[in-house]
Amino acid sequence: TYNAAMAACSKAHQTTLALHLMSELQDQQIRPDLVTFNTAVSACVRGLQWQKTLDLMHNMKTLAISADVITYSAAMSAVSRADHWSLALGLIQDMRSQGIAANRITFNAAMDACSRGGCWEVALELLQRMASCSLKPDM
Question: Which residue has the higher pLDDT, 7 or 138?
Fold first, then answer.
């Protein structure tokens, strides 16, 4: 299937090819699902294509496909690696407004973005929010 082929490309750091496969499936009138989008987002994280990650999330909304915690966590990792801490905070706020519970991975990605941006105070606030969500911090 396309999802499996995209995942293989993603794992091999072949971001362009994974995204080409996604375009190809749409050209063939095959509707992408959440797994398809999450696979494409993960490929973009590996390929350091944070802008494309955000484009994919926008496309999900257009197709009425709801992002999940995996989508958001990956997107936060993408913007964090590009030193866009404010975008990571926007994503975590968007999650909250969508009623999607953040997990440890989500908080770690957001705190990493804050660390890269020199926003240690915000990182500490996120650590406290994590505890208020009954999530145990890790190392």
Answer: 7
